[in-house]
User: Fold these one by one.
Assistant:
Number 1:
Amino acid sequence: MMNIQLEKPVFYLNEFALRFELGPDDVDIWLDDNRKNYNEEYFEIAMSRALSIYEAAFKPSDMIKVCYQIFSDGRKKIRKSDYFFKLFEPLCGKALEFSEHRDIYTEDLEYKRHCWKRVTISDVFVSELNIKPIIQACIDGDFGDRGPTLAGQLFIINCDKELMFHLYDDRGLDVAASSKWALEDLYQNQNQLLLDYDKQYMDSLFK
């Protein structure tokens, strides 16, 4: 696999990465102070921004891999009944690989049985993904009552462009790459969505 770290926080653990803001600061998540009613405008903006970034980074003919991982105490497993497999059911005939990893978050792995369980779907074209419900499940990660969500971490890897897309929650997403050149078009075309907090570093990559 290309030289990209598949672990959070993607932006800070990869030399070449961009961080984008999804949920707008000037729109509240809630319609009321009791936090009982969601402001759908907030989630619609987050979805629109995520789709714009995704479509700028991935073309229909690009070859991709989908990686999904969960933390395990040695007993917890990725099961075929997990929502991940419902989301990606159209790809059920593709190459599927289950693996275990102890080379990420090593400071948290206190016992030998602790590991990260990962499933990878390979040989997929972007055109085969129904991306909207996938993005929605990631955006709603902290709001389970809005609909089904993913319990683990999802990474979509563009094998042709050598970059990786990771939407961590409603606040934002990271795109990392093997080189800064793989990110240059995305940096230019989606510049208005780059997170202000880290923008100085991102600007320095392309000076």
Note: Residues 10-205 form one domain.
Number 2:
Amino acid sequence: MAGDILDNQGRGEAGWQWPSIHPEGRKFALITAAASLVTAFLAWETIAWPMAFLTLGVLAFFRDPERVVPQDDKYIVSPADGMVSLITQVEPPAELVGDDGSGTTGLPAGPVTRVSIFMSVFDVHINRAPIGGIVRRVVYMPGKFMNADLDKASEENERQHLLIERPDGVSIGFTQIAGLVARRIVPFVKPGDMIAVGQRVGLIRFGSRVDVYLPAGTSPRVVLGQTVIAGETVLADIGTQPLIEGVSQ
């Protein structure tokens, strides 16, 4: 069950179960399932079968499995399922820097490490909080729908910036970016919400990317090409700069 204690001392009860389907996806599944049934009733099999398979694809896309979230204040966990496609030094988005007029201090100016996670249509698209704390900003930016794997998608695509501040003042910013197929970013949180690390914060419909901006003095614990899991994979330890190397196979 969600919330059960699972650890390396044998506590908890492990078991496989079908992942739930997020409510955001149920309406799409109902539409495609209805179309499949109607076309089957009309004996339009060439349409009915593809619509039936599309229904299964929609259900798979909106699956919402439970996750076992690491509980350590030094960890920044992955906000998205997918592949680490870019690790680079950049200036954080202007929408997350400085005072936005609300009296809330954003990220400091200056280069930081950005870890980009590309989500294919086969990945889980529920995004989760990389740290626990107060949601300070949720800023939606309209834009284009270029391939989310491109570096310039961070500045030109439709996107939504989020800023979370921990009780000790450490802030993490991250950005949900729409891709070629994605046409809507759906937030689950708003400024002022108190959230836990690994908590669901939103989704991006039908393929996209999430950028995470690490604090100064923090290097990623992941490498290019690595597959990460939202709410489980540790992206970085705050304040540490290990050199992590991998060999592609």
Note: The longest helix spans residues 23-41.
Number 3:
Amino acid sequence: MTRAVDSGIILIARLALSVLFLWSGVMKLLGYGAFVAYLQSKGVPFVQIAAPIATAVEVLGGLMLIVGFLIRPLGLVMAVYTIATAVLGHDFWNVADAALQHDMVIHFWKNVGIAGGFLLLCVTGAGGASIDAARAPRRPLL
């Protein structure tokens, strides 16, 4: 059973994570051609498959975070996705320019930290303010 304050904090965490991914996913949709070109420039394999999957993960994942739907499995999926984007998109070990490399290091470790937040959601669940909580079987009072 989750205390009300815990549910409120978990809700704030879900919303904070959702803003980043929902915004990023919508930007990918609005500039889809540029996003595909970026993935190609990074050498991402199967770009025609990877681009729509990445966009869907961010948009749908962001929406699922907001409403608190399937948060435990979503937390694991989003943690793996966030680490994959860190490795593929912020590969500081391949950057020669010192200023750009510094920026990439920051973004890489930021993604690792975000993945940690998703792993916590995987363990804690969505909290009381969620579809998951509304769908959970109720225990009898007696």
Note: The first helix runs from residue 4 to 30.
